[in-house]
């Protein structure tokens, strides 16, 4: 998002094959001040994304011609624009696949438009976050360049999604302190009562898979049963 722009000025690409959901969602987002461009299938969505500049992509999982996961993967090859996925299924595996593809958040159908708007605004705020001034942080063998938003382990780059990076950064800035799932939802995803704690668990799982030597026995990010997670000092 360009400097000085607020979330309500943002341009959103809505990729949804259901005409009624597409129309109602576009009207609701437009009434909230967003500029909305729509696409009815995955291939059309990719073509529109490549042809125009967008601040956020709202992407259905089940799409004709090219599903939402593959659309997200293709977007991630060239862009870090926030991606929020819509899913009619509540399986945790859907969340895992979406996060692995590079999504920042997901919303389950059926949804209320005010809830969706809150989630999109939160994603846009996260995309505009610049940090607290720290330039470099370390967690064991993990080196984090805050300004460059890069992570390295023993000289090797570790590719993280925007949300994975923000989650790691939040834990690092409070190393040794237990952060509850609700706190992480609020600080990383930007909402609390709208959140789903499973989103935190899945994101932690994906983050561990990338930074831990053995994700099954994590040493860098520990679970504190009944309380939350903490980065080890």
Task: Describe the overall structure.
The structure is a single chain. The chain is globular. The protein is built from eight helices and eleven strands. With 233 residues, the chain is an alpha/beta fold. The protein folds into two domains: 7-127, Rossmann fold (3-Layer(aba) Sandwich); 136-231, Arc Repressor Mutant, subunit A (Orthogonal Bundle). Helix 2 (42-51) runs parallel beside helix 3 and helix 6 (162-173) packs across helix 8 (197-211). Residues 1-8 have low confidence and may be disordered.
Characterize this entry briefly.
Helix content is 40%, strand content 20%. With 233 residues, the protein is an alpha/beta fold. Strands 2-1-3-4-5 form a five-stranded parallel β-sheet, with helices on both faces. A four-stranded antiparallel β-sheet has the order 6-7-8-9, covered by helices on one side. The chain has a two-stranded antiparallel sheet with strand order 10-11.
């Amino acid at each position: 998002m360009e400097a000085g722009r607020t979330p309500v000025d943002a341009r959103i690409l809505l990729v949804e094959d259901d005409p009624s959901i597409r129309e109602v969602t576009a009207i609701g987002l437009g009434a909230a001040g967003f500029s909305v461009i729509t696409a009815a299938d995955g291939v059309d969505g990719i073509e529109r994304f490549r042809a125009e500049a967008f601040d956020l992509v709202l992407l259905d999982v089940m799409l004709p011609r090219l599903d939402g996961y593959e659309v997200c993967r293709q977007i991630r090859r060239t862009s870090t624009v926030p991606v929020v996925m819509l899913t009619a299924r509540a399986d945790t595996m859907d969340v895992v696949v979406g996060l692995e593809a590079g999504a920042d958040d997901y919303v389950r159908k059926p949804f209320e438009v005010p809830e969706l708007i809150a989630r999109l605004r939160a994603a846009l705020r996260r995309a505009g976050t610049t940090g607290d001034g720290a330039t470099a942080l370390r967690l064991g063998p993990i080196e984090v360049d805050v300004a460059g938003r890069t992570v390295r382990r023993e000289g090797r780059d570790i590719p993280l999604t925007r949300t994975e990076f923000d989650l790691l950064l939040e834990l690092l800035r409070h190393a040794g302190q237990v952060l509850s799932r609700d706190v992480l939802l609020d600080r990383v995803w930007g909402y609390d009562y709208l959140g789903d704690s499973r989103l935190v668990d899945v994101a932690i799982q994906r983050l561990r898979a990338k930074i831990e030597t053995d994700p099954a026995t994590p040493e860098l990010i520990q679970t504190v049963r009944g309380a939350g997670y903490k980065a080890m000092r």
